[in-house]
Amino acid sequence: MTLTVKVRRQLGEGDDSFTLDADFVSEGRVTALFGRSGSGKSTLINLIAGLLRPDSGLIRVDDTVLFDSGGRIDLPTHRRRLGYVFQEGRLFPHLSIRANLLYGQRFTPRSDRWAVFSEVVDLLGIGHLLDRRPASLSGGEKQRVAIGRALLSSPRLLLMDEPLAALDEQRKAEILPFIERLRDRMHLPIVYVSHSVEEVSRIADTVVLLRGGRTVAIGPVNAILGRGGDDADGFDPGTVLAATVTGHDPASGMTQLIHPAGRLSIPQIPAETGTPVRIRIRARDVALAVGEPGRLSIRNRLAATVREISEGSGPVVEIHLDIAGDPLVASITRDSVRDLGLAPGSAVTALIKSASFDPLAFGAEEKEKA
Amino acid sequence: MFEPLSPSEWEAIRLSLRIAAVAMVASLPFGIALAYLLARGRFPGRTLVDGIIHLPLVMPPVVTGYLLLLLFGRRGPIGSFLDSTFGIVFAFRWTGAVLACVVMGLPLMVRAIRLSIDGIDRKLEAAASTLGASRLVVFTTITLPLMLPGILAGLVLSFARSLGEFGATITFVGNIPGETQTIPTAIYTYIQVPGGTTGALRLTAISIAISLAALIISDVMARRVTRQMLGQ
After folding, report:
1. Most buried one in A68, A163, A303, A327, CB count within 10 A?
2. Residues of B in Cβ contact (< 8 Å) with A133
3. Got the DSSP string for A10-61?
4. B107 CA: distance to closest CA in chain A (Å)
5. Is the pLDDT of residue A79 over 50?
6. Residue B138 distance to chain A (closest CA, Å)
């Protein structure tokens, strides 16, 4: 899928006005629109959905033009066939869960219906809720139903606007695996709006970075989230690594992972042995050692080569490393760089504290079905 | 007091219920359309339309009745047109009493329905459109069902207002037994004649009973609708 967006839209007048000026092309399976609140993420996704009208520009999904001010095309929302999962679920209160789920199906021509009711219900684990009403569901259940409802309209693209923002940490951890399964099992491109690095790291493969209404960068997750970028973006740089679960040690409460660059030991996660997982490692949680580090409490040690040392004015610099072909970013002080004599090409050992892993930042990743 | 009702009393009760029921049903499409227009429409003169609809609520009912007589009377501009074109006559007919009740009850109905429209989360309508529903389908499947509590309240208010309608009715269509004499105008007639007290009291008791029954039925229905909506 190729999503082409090149739009302008002004909101408000005078001093309070805000201009969204977005320009990007994404071919990702999951494209994250990422930025601080107020950066224009939600405005942008509403423009794609047709709930807001651009002042000018072009929005295209593959060959289907949704909006083109030049060609005077403005497909109404109900004919765009985009699924939309809102932050607050927005289930219809007067309809049963089953009727909510089936609401969009009848508007999709039979030949375009790819979503199968039983499959979607199984995927989201909502079979036991079908005869209930939205008012009696928990926040997490509502959001799963909202995802199912959007899927069952058989959209060509799924838009998700901070679908976890209204949930507490526990509920987030409950929903994220469903979104991952959705990504891995359904051939459905997703545009995912979030301000959470953890969510974006787990779910997205392409990130569009927004700042003050402008799209400032687009690229693979590690290319965008690996850079500290602007303080205004409000996130810690870090790297997403793909690793495989090799086993659990219930006695110590740890899970063992293997990455081509070495073994990793992290607090236990609910993933079966043999499954690939994504983990996000914050740059500030990585320390570097030259030579054999000796006796240390830090158990995760990966052989690395310095690729690049970022230039910056502050006391902390980012070291971009290569670990068996994958990137890894470490934030260390300028003083340490000098003391260790680090330069591009230096062989180092990257040290990562097991205790520093954020439990939200682990995600299972299934091989996409052919 | 406990004598059986006289034929003319029965006639007044029957007419009252009939006029109130027809007025209630006839008001509904206008009530929904006007409430939707006022709640969602953005057009010049909206305030004026709002004001005109609400006028019967604040004007003396006699004034409303007199205006109806001027407009819809046999020689009135609208009345003569309807008479010659469609053969519809309002003046001094029970249909005229219905018209008076519709005009008097409409502001109450419009207010009740409009309140329920204002209470609808428009984000639900946006969600329905992302699922493929056109504006008309969104209205019939989302907006209208969510308006139901307001529609129910509006129907009850309209019915109750019609049962109690006196001023506009007597001015517009008079007090003709068997044609336009309703419970209130029959009570009024009883009070005017010596020895009419028992008759007036009988009709008063029946009036109270009908009003109470209407309130109880509407309450039960409202509760059922709410329960269904919230799934409790």
Report:
1. A163
2. 229-232
3. EESSGGG-EEEEEEEEE--SEEEEE--TTSSHHHHHHHHHTSS--SEEEEEE
4. 27
5. yes
6. 10
Q: Which amino acid is at A138?
A: S
The count of CB pairs under 8 A between chains A and B is 77
Contact B133 A83 (CB under 8 A): no
Query: Would you call B123 and A76 a contact, using CB atoms and an 8 Å cutoff?
Result: no
A163-185 tens-digit pLDDT: 998 888 888 888 888 888 888 88
List all residues 6 or more positions away from A328 whose beta carbon is below 8 Å from its beta carbon: A239, A241, A281, A286, A302, A304, A320, A321, A322, A350
Q: Which two tokens stand for residue B28?
A: 């509904």
Tokens linked to A155: 């959209």
Res B93 pLDDT > 70: yes
Determine, for residues A132 and B231 on separate chains, whether the beta-carbon distance falls below 8 Å.
Answer: yes
Mutate to test the interface with B, among A85, A94, A159, A161 (most CBs of B within 10 A): A94
Confidence band, pLDDT 50/70/90 cuts, at residue B170: very high
Helix extents (H) in B77-141 = 77-86, 94-118, 122-130, 135-138
Cα separation, A271 vs A277, in Å, equals 8
- Provide ipTM, 2 decimals: 0.81
Instruction: Return d(Cα A78, Cα A45) in angstroms, integer.
Output: 15
CB atoms within 10 A of CB A105: 17
Interface of chain A toward chain B, CB-CB under 8 angstroms: 49, 51, 76-84, 86, 88, 90, 92-94, 96, 103-104, 107-108, 132-136, 149-150, 153, 159
Look at strands A276-282 and A238-249 and give their pairing. antiparallel
- Residue in B121, B125, B131 to test binding to A, most A beta-carbons within 10 Å: B131
pLDDT digits (tens, 9 = 90+) for A88-107: 999 999 999 999 999 999 99
Domains of chain A by range and CATH?
3-225 (3.40.50.300), 240-364 (2.40.50.100)
- Alpha-carbon distance A235 to nearest alpha carbon in chain B (angstroms): 30
pTM score, two decimals? 0.83
Q: Is the pLDDT assigned to residue B37 strictly greater than 80?
A: yes
